[in-house]
Amino acid sequence: MAAWSRAAELADRTPASRNRYVDFLRAMSMLVVIVGHWLAAAPHIDARGTLVTAHILTLAPWTAWLTWILQVMPIFFMVGGYANGISWRATRRDGKSYAAWLEGRLRRILWPLLPLLVVWVMIVGVEYARGVRPELISYGSRVAFIPIWFLAVYVVIVLLVPLMEVAWARFGMGSFWALTAAAIVGDVMYFAFDLRWLGFANYLFVWGAISLLGFAWLDERFSDRSVMLFCGALGFAALVLLVHFGPYPVAMIGVPGDPVSNTTPPKVTLIPLAILQGGLLLAVQAPARRWLAGRGAWTATVAINSSIMTLFIWHLTATTLVVLAAYLTNGFGLRLDPGSAQWWWARIPWIIANTLALVPLVAAFGRFERPGVPEGPPALAWRHVLGALVTAAGLALLAAHGVGGYGWFGLNLWGLALAFAGIGLVARRPDSARTS
User: How many beta carbons lie within 10 A of that of residue 167, not counting itself?
Assistant: First the structure.
């Protein structure tokens, strides 16, 4: 249990001033995302013996209500706002540069992507050479890269943290309401005037607004339990009104085949969802922090966070491997009718199988979450900004179209080229910087 021992050692060194609940929510929200993705996947073999890739929200529409619990990306962005805010303030206090801060944040986010990209290029290359149908290769790699959309957005939010700090210091909650108002305008233009392209601005407006809630949490605006419960109730009421009277679907994630998605591009519904979830979770912050003072609970939290990026970006690759193994063993476990009682009971061994497939991936690639710190001064800030934007563009293409299936060598060359180039800009320091 070397991993547990390392986590325990880090846990013992945690300063008393650290808000452990932030780390706990980061870990728990990521685990909920992983389990939610595993539950949503409903691959099965139909009566003709064909492998069908389906989504449980399509087959059992009532499960859309579960996404109000399982769609926890708002919590992750709020936690990210808190963590980025406290990190940026510490950087300014210590007299360090934006370039140094940005390099540290981006390396921890982007470096773990390298083995994922390399492994999937190899998988696509082998399958393409074997003559596997391009649409199957494309689908498999798109499924594996579903989580990547989050990173494409998050790295852009990270770039804007200094501006968000300035806006928060100047306007407080007014900055949150300004972005919320911009998101509402974006939705009005999207639905009323059919300006669909404007909806993509909500990637910044919606997730930026939710990130600012993390700044509010950092400044202890959310310390009163009764106020938090009231906010949670308001968020719930607003969400009910929006989905009942507005053009928004119930599901807080995208449902294949639905003409409107609350996440692609983001809709204003995600903001009351964040208020609902954040209000309830912050209402229990005090007892949760007392519980996290215990060594066992805190060590487990540290252990999950030490591999959190690896867990996130590899968990659907694990699902792909499980489905492939089941298909090659005469469809073992894939012949149940999705949505039936028997199928739901089978989710227990399904989650166990996915977990077992994920463990060796984490063991093999978790080390990339701890990149070494290069010697010498960091590169100029513009290099990191450019690298982050290029990477985000590449990740967006990979999330939308997968790693391969079509194109030269069956690869999504543009997406891969942009992702590799962007990560290279962030990870590699100029020779002059290393020499000095």
Answer: 19
Residues in the chain, pLDDT under 50: 432-436
Q: Please name which of 315, 253, 366, 344 lies closest in space to residue 31, comparing C-alpha atoms.
A: 315
Close Cβ partners of 119 (under 8 Å, ≥ 6 residues apart): 317
Report residue 152: phi and psi, to 5°. -60, -40
Please answer whether residues 410 and 124 qualify as being in contact, where contact means their C-beta atoms are separated by less than 8 angstroms. Answer: yes
**Helix (DSSP H) and strand (DSSP E) numbers for the chain:** 22, 2
CB under 8 Å to 89, separation ≥6 — which residues? 165
> pLDDT tens digits, residue range 382-399?
999 999 999 999 999 999
**What's the pLDDT score for residue 307?**
93
Q: State the Cα–Cα distance between residues 117 and 160, nearest whole angstrom.
A: 26
Ranges of H-type helices in 193-346: 202-218, 225-245, 270-283, 285-292, 295-306, 308-328, 341-345
**Using CA atoms, how far apart are residues 213 and 285, in angstroms rounded to an integer?**
15
- C-alpha 267/C-alpha 412 separation (Å) is 28
Residue 375: per-residue pLDDT: 64
Assess contact for 124 and 368: CB atoms under 8 A. Answer: no
H helix intervals, 62-172: 67-70, 73-93, 98-110, 113-129, 134-144, 148-159, 161-171
H or E segment to which residue 52 belongs = strand 51-52
Task: Supply 335's token pair.
Answer: 């012949």
Provide the pairing of β-strand 44-45 with 51-52: antiparallel
H or E element in which residue 353 lies: helix 347-365
Q: What is the pLDDT of residue 7?
A: 86
| Residues contacting residue 64 through CB under 8 Å, at least 6 positions apart | 57, 249, 250, 251, 255
- Give the integer Cα–Cα distance in Å for 234 and 252: 17
The pLDDT assigned to 63 comes to 95
Peptide bond before 265: cis, by omega within 30 degrees of 0? yes
CA–CA dist 154, 72 (Å, integer): 15
